[in-house]
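User: I'm putting together a teaching handout on how sequence relates to shape, and I'd like one worked example. Could you take Spore germination protein KC from Paenibacillus silagei, show the sequence you're using, and then write out its predicted structure as tokens right after it?

Assistant: Happy to. First the sequence, then the structure tokens directly below it.
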Amino acid sequence: MRNRIFGGIGVLFVLPMLLLTGCWDSVELNRRAIVSGVAIDRGDSEAERYKLSFQVIVAEEISGEKSRGISPVALYTGTGRTMFEALADASRQTARFLSLGHVRVLVISEKFARAGIKDLLDVLERESDTRLNSLIFISKGQPAREIMSTMTVFSKIPANDLVEKLETTSKQFGYNFRMAVDDVIRGIQIRGGGPVINGVFTRGEWTPASGSNDSLKSIEPRSILRVSSLAAFKDDKLKGWLTGDAALGTVLLHNRIKEFPVLLKQQEGGYFSFNIYQSQVSLAVESSDPEHPVFTVKITQQAALKEAPHPLDLTSPKVLEELSDRLIKESVKHIQAAVSTAKELGSDYLGFGRALQRKDPRGWKKVRDHWEDVFADCEIRFDADVVIRHTDMRSNSFQIH
């Protein structure tokens, strides 16, 4: 009896050990090359249709241990008829396995984006090693490889610098916002519309020396990565770039902006500067006739006065009301510019069709197959309210007598 008891206990100890077997395809950490960013370019031939550049972290240079004084990242480029073949080609150049589980940034060239990114997104969603929360950028007017091979001042890893720049501009005075792989996948499935993706380019002349630490030794770096402009898509193809009022109005309609500056020009010269620090935009639709829907854009914003170059009485409700009315006109102007540009590009990346679909599903079914034509002629009204909450640390400006 005692032997049976001990035998049963032994089995209980052995069974868990059998279950805790190692993964058949595991790779030790010291055999992995951690990829922080990927650049995707379109080749000129079918054999080199995909050009993938992998920004690999050199761990010894980041940690400082066993440092050899070389670049903290290395760039490996592979080509192929498919993305998988390009990855295989690049892996032949490295002594370690390319690990895609930590990719933070994907940069797609403008040439590639204009041809269509649907197949690319299918690969990213299908591959188990990639992350759907990696940020996507479109390189404006230059190969994506140049973006991945530009050294940066505030981060040893250029991919991390792009992420930090995007976070900064989305929180302070910018119209760029986080756009990840899964956001883009959802965007290209919007009937009659598409995603909006951040643009990036190098300010200054890019040269091969831009990928060297020597380019950062001067007080003014030769090349600086800059996040700017928005790439507007129709389905999976790039249709145009949004800047200025059109870009700002687009982000306002998506409710993806934290705060931004507004300037009001004065007849006497100079500008009043305001910071819009709260903004909420919503869409209402009247669809008794789905072929001719009427949209109302409701805008609610709060502002703070930052600069007042002229001696106005800022304690007067009338003065503040007049300034608020001018701010309302500016907000309406931003969204009108966004709508006009979307109609010109023939893409409803602003979400008016989705608003109609939510409000009137039956009506949407009648117009969804030719929504581009309906959107081009639909009426849009505005209901805006901007309140100046405070004037910061003082009311009226000081005067010199």
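A couple of points you could highlight for students: The two ends are 108 Å apart (CA to CA). Residues 269 and 309 are 9 Å apart (CA to CA).
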